[in-house]
Amino acid sequence: MHHKRKAIQDLYPDELAHCYGCGKNNPDGHQLKTYLMGDETIAHFTPDEKFTAIPGSVYGGLVASLLDCHGTGSAAAFACLAENIDLENVAIIPIRCVTASLKVDFKVPTPMGKKLELKGKLRSIEGRKILVDMTLSAEGIVCATGEILAIKLKD
Amino acid sequence: MHHKRKAIQDLYPDELAHCYGCGKNNPDGHQLKTYLMGDETIAHFTPDEKFTAIPGSVYGGLVASLLDCHGTGSAAAFACLAENIDLENVAIIPIRCVTASLKVDFKVPTPMGKKLELKGKLRSIEGRKILVDMTLSAEGIVCATGEILAIKLKD
């Protein structure tokens, strides 16, 4: 799959790009990268074996972590869309979001060794509150769903 | 603080003790340890600097991960209490729980470099469904609350 656009997290300003989950300036971290594709967001991640739950499956904390970072990135992207900010023409994303609440429902064990796909869809924007619905899948099977309430930071 | 009891996670059978969040057999992992204290559970954890969100605070994925592992451990402990299983007299905990759903509310940024305290309280047990309410605090300030729906595994 080609991503012509830059990842949302690569548009975070350098001084705010240290997140273990998705910061480009955190060499130890997951460096999750969320892309806006039409009116959805997408990210891919293949967990290292050490992030095991019981042997053969990915531990819940990583699933939650990926959904959290994908969620805040998605929320920022959707807020930009809503304000007609074209992310192809910015070096730094002008909107940044933090998580107020994250809910993860674990449907089936997330298999180890597979490329995971995260998707995000905007549910609503009300003032500074942005709700995003997410799925985390492996080989087309939804392993977990996520719901994030993200808050748009003031400048 | 003295913990006379063994940690709940140290009572998991060896073949199920590889969780990155809390398995004693995962040398790369967090090895979170949950203790039953009366009718509450408690755990402590000091995050490594690399688990940063923005500089100075702990990233949300780790907060969620700690609450998840503390939650399933707490659920197993509370289920044992309810069935009059004395955890001081077992080598292996006879009840094991998995997460069906986890909700985390982020109240204030979790400060980096502090010892975090997690607490758990049983809300309800209905059949195989166990609900546990949690807090994650730093220096007495609740940074996040968690709510877990854990499911008791069948033998």
Automatic annotation (TrEMBL), chains A, B:
<dbReference type="GO" id="GO:0016020">
    <property type="term" value="C:membrane"/>
</dbReference>
<keyword id="KW-0443">Lipid metabolism</keyword>
<protein>
    <recommendedName>
        <fullName>Acyl-coenzyme A thioesterase THEM4</fullName>
        <ecNumber>3.1.2.2</ecNumber>
    </recommendedName>
</protein>
<keyword id="KW-0809">Transit peptide</keyword>
<dbReference type="InterPro" id="IPR052365">
    <property type="entry name" value="THEM4/THEM5_acyl-CoA_thioest"/>
</dbReference>
<feature type="domain" description="Thioesterase">
    <location>
        <begin position="56"/>
        <end position="140"/>
    </location>
</feature>
<dbReference type="GO" id="GO:0005737">
    <property type="term" value="C:cytoplasm"/>
</dbReference>
<dbReference type="GO" id="GO:0016790">
    <property type="term" value="F:thiolester hydrolase activity"/>
</dbReference>
<keyword id="KW-0966">Cell projection</keyword>
<dbReference type="InterPro" id="IPR029069">
    <property type="entry name" value="HotDog_dom_sf"/>
</dbReference>
<keyword id="KW-0963">Cytoplasm</keyword>
<dbReference type="InterPro" id="IPR006683">
    <property type="entry name" value="Thioestr_dom"/>
</dbReference>
<keyword id="KW-0053">Apoptosis</keyword>
<keyword id="KW-0472">Membrane</keyword>
<dbReference type="GO" id="GO:0006631">
    <property type="term" value="P:fatty acid metabolic process"/>
</dbReference>
<keyword id="KW-0378">Hydrolase</keyword>
<keyword id="KW-0276">Fatty acid metabolism</keyword>
<dbReference type="Pfam" id="PF03061">
    <property type="entry name" value="4HBT"/>
</dbReference>
<comment type="similarity">
    <text>Belongs to the THEM4/THEM5 thioesterase family.</text>
</comment>
<keyword id="KW-1003">Cell membrane</keyword>
